[in-house]
Structure formats: C-alpha cells, structure tokens
Amino acid sequence: MIPVNEPLLDGNEKKYLLECIETGWISSEGPFVKEFEQKFAARVGRKHAIAVTNGTAALDAAVEALGIGPGDEVIMPTFTIISCITQIIRSGATPVLVDSDPDTWNMDVTQIEAKITPRTKAIMVVHIYGLPVDMDPVLDIVERHGLKLIEDAAEMIGQTYRSRRTLRDEGGAIPTSLILHPSTFLHPCGSFGDISTFSFYPNKHITTGEGGMIVTDDDDLAESCRSLRNLCFQPQKRFVHERLGWNLRMTNLQAALGLAQLERLDVFIARKRAMGARYTELLKGVDGLELMVDEAPYAANIYWVFGVVLNDHVPFDAAEAMKRLGVAGIGTRPFFWPMHEQPVLQKRGLFSGETYLVAERMARRGFYIPSGLALESKHIEQVATEVVKLMVFGA
Ligand SMILES: *Cc1c(COP(=O)(O)O)cnc(C)c1O
After folding, report:
1. pTM of the entire structure?
2. Residue 248 covered by a domain
3. Which helix (H) or strand (E) holds 255?
4. Are residues 51 and 178 in the same domain?
5. Is residue 157 part of a domain?
6. Does 17 share its domain with 105?
7. pLDDT tops 60 at residue 173
8. Phi, psi of 311 (to 5 degrees)
C-alpha cells in the first residue's frame, strides 16, 4: 500500500530530540520552543510567533483573542476543514460562507463584499491545497470596511503571494529577496492576518507530530494569545483568573522536531513542487480528470497535496474512485466536505437553504492521491499508472 502521506525526518530531528532527553528539557519550558518561535517568526516576517499544540488550537485562540463573540459575523469559505468554524460557533458568533473559485479551489474573493453587513467583524481566509487565496482584493476589502483578518496558512508553510502592496516592515525580518520589483513584492503566506495560524500535523510542509503556530505583529494580540495558551494564568496572582483560556502549550520535544524541519523547508517545498510537476506530466490530458492548476497569476503551486477532480461525465464519484484505488494499493483522502453541508451545523439551524455549487461539486468529485514528502519517484509513477487505469477502464 502506498500511504497517502509519510513525513521526511532525515535532518537534525534525531540530534535535537536526543538533546531534549539528555538535558531533561521536555516540557514547554525548554529552550527549543523559544528558538522555534523566533526562527519561524523570522521566516514568515512577523514580529511574534506563539507555538501551540495544533493548528485547530491556533485558530481557536485567534478567534478568542480578536474578541469575536455574540452578534459578530465572520466571513469564511465553505470549502475548508471544520477547525476553522468551531470556535466561531462556540463563541456565539455567526459564520457567513462564500463559495470557492473553480480554478484555484480557494475562496472566491469576488463573493465577499456582498456578504458584508454592519455586524461583520472579520474575514477568515484559508489557503487551500497549494495555492494562496488572492489576497490583494481581500486586503482592500478589509481596509475599506475596517475588518479584522484571520489567515489560516496551515497548508501554505513556505508559500509566498505576489502582491502589488508593499511589505510591512514591523517585523524587520523580510529578506530583500522578497522584493521583486518596486511595484511587486513577495509576501510570505502567514504575513497577512491580524493573526495568522499554521499547523504542523505530519502531512503539512513541516511537522512536529502534532503542533501549530500563531503569528502576529500586534504586541497586545501576541500577549493575549500567550495568555490564552497558558490557561490565562496571571503573572502576579497565578491561580486567580480574569479570563478563560486553554492549555495549548507546545512541548520542547515537538519544538525540537519543528526546528529541524524548519531548516529543511526550502528542500521540502522544492520536493513538493517536483512531485506536483511529475504528477501533472503523467496525468495531464487523461480524459475525465481535472488537475490542480500549476500556477495562479500571484503564486506557483506548492502542492500541499495533489488533488484531482472527476469531470461530471465520469460515471463514478470520488468515493467510488477512492475505493477502487484502495483495492489497487493506493492511499487517498477525500476533499473537504463543505461547512454548509455539515450535519452538526445544520442541526444547529445554520445555513438552511444555502447552496454553494463549486464546493458541493469538489466535495463529491474530488480527492487527493499520495503526496507526502517521503514519496519516491517510483511510487509517483505507480500511483499515476493506477489513476490512469481507473480513468480508462474504471478499475
Ligand atoms: C491541517 C489544517 C488545520 C488543522 O490543523 P491541526 O493541526 O490538524 O489541528 C486547519 N486548517 C487547515 C487549512 C488545515 O489544513
């Protein structure tokens, strides 16, 4: 069986983990946590980074830190993971959905403005599968309407967005290599939000086993996120609480892994791009198969996963295709199931009567094939061969 994901741990992971064990620093108090935070912040060009237990927790803290609550509306894509919406709902706020762009599979930014009301407090953008959301129009809207921006960059570690806007320099850490031209700049994904978040689950571009990161340039938001991460203990009266937080602390063991992985990020991105290019070469032109687009005007795909969508004339759906590929020894995963079709949310009376045709189609027709960092070229060939067989012979 070729698994859908296998991470690559062949850098300094072992060395740094051994250091944790030999020094006895295993908890969140250990020195790797701060070092990982500092180096990650520098890489994304942000002032603050706060390491947490996972990407979902990072989003929870982001929503809470921005004070989102009853009466507020948050505009977000329907085509995303449940992690994006849970804290919005628990906080008593209302999620407001938009459909996806059929080419990039990202949030269709032209649909945002029509959803703004006097109650809109924030926009949550989620970069999907390998290409960023088209950020310039979103940033214009955010400015014009005075909204907060949450950016879920879990799938976009190491990706950049080509923008006509100048780089923010508060972090003071933007490499000059990102300045393309006096009128075009490469912004790292994760540099856009009032708060931006990342995940280090093993299928992301870098992993800590489980883990996540919150980044921001705002000192108060950073302080608030640090406090929320640590049960809102107070510096003076430790066990007296003014606010409810969580225990979201990342361990030194996880940060040791993260640091070693971060050293390899550029290698990993190159590897993912090569994988995407090879799959594209092998599957391009196969009848009935829509592939991920290699490039948008503002970014080249970093292939977090390699996704395919079955054309409407293909006589089976994604679930059936995945079953047949499984029999052939190929691991797959379905695409996200849209938020407006989630039973748990419908039971709460949300999104009744709403339809988002692009997301609905992707959920039923789309899936992704093995695309982990440890995937070897002979596996890519084997996967592609089985996908071609599936499309030609139906098995
Ligand atoms: C993986 C992922 C998350 C959740 O991260 P976890 O670390 O698994 O909690 C959130 N958003 C997106 C877009 C993701 O891909």
Report:
1. 0.96
2. yes
3. helix 252-262
4. yes
5. yes
6. yes
7. no
8. -60, 160
